[in-house]
């Protein structure tokens, strides 16, 4: 019985885990912000949660930034991306803006998952301070 549990634990660790959180898909929300603001929000949210040594910024034209956690052979990566979208403001005005997606994957579900949630919360908090929310069309 103990050996079966040990094998199951190793199999689960090797398969890893992943999660996706999206303001567009999950909350049907975006924000009336500029491309530059969206990029800054993504990058600053990753930098606030990961050591700069463990951050991979995308090229200047990219709206994705990622950070990772390493412990021995285990790695967990969190990618944050701004996605162009069109939505409607509370007053009915249609605007273009950006929604956000945070994807987490790797072999460290506890610390990696909490980092992804922290990144997602910070992204939403910053976006709400910068521009009005938009209901996705």
What about the largest sheet? 7 strands, antiparallel
* SS-derived structural category: alpha+beta
Helix content: 25-40%
What coarse outline follows from CA principal-axis ratios? elongated
Uncertain regions: pLDDT < 50 for 5+ in a row?
A: 5-9
The run of helices and strands is HEEHEEEEHE
Please provide the count of β strands: 7
The CATH architecture classification is 2-Layer Sandwich
Topology:
Elements: H1 2-15, E1 17-22, E2 29-31, H2 35-49, E3 55-57, E4 64-71, E5 74-88, E6 94-106, H3 109-130, E7 133-136
Helix pairs in contact: 2-3
Overview in brief:
The protein is α+β, with helices and mostly antiparallel strands and 137 residues long. It has a single domain (16-136), classed as TATA-Binding Protein, CATH 3.30.310. Helices cover 37% and strands 38% of the residues.
Explain this structure to me?
- This protein has 137 residues and is an alpha+beta fold.
- The chain has one domain: TATA-Binding Protein (2-Layer Sandwich), CATH 3.30.310.
- The chain is built from three helices and seven strands, in the order H-E-E-H-E-E-E-E-H-E.
- Strands 1, 2, 3, 4, 5, 6 and 7 form a seven-stranded antiparallel beta sheet that branches.
- A hairpin with a 2-residue loop joins strand 4 and strand 5.
- Helix 2 (35-49) runs antiparallel to helix 3 (109-130).
- The longest helix has 22 residues, at 109-130.
- It is elongated.
- Residues 5-9 have low confidence and may be disordered.
For this entry, give a set of tags.
37% helix; single chain; seven-stranded antiparallel β-sheet; alpha+beta; 137 residues; TATA-Binding Protein; 7 strands
């Amino acid at each position: 019985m103990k050996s079966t549990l040990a094998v199951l634990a190793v199999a689960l660790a090797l398969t890893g885990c992943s999660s996706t959180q999206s303001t567009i898909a999950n909350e049907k929300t975006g924000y009336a912000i500029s491309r530059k603001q969206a990029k800054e929000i993504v990058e600053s949210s990753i930098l606030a949660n990961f050591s700069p040594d463990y951050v991979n910024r995308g090229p200047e034209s990219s709206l994705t930034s990622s950070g990772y956690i390493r412990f021995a052979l285990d790695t967990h990566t969190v990618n944050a991306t701004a996605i162009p979208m069109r939505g409607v403001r509370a007053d009915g005005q249609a605007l273009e803006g950006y929604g956000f997606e945070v994807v987490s994957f790797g072999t460290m579900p506890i610390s990696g998952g909490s980092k992804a949630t922290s990144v997602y919360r910070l992204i939403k908090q910053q976006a709400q301070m910068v521009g009005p929310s938009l209901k996705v069309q």
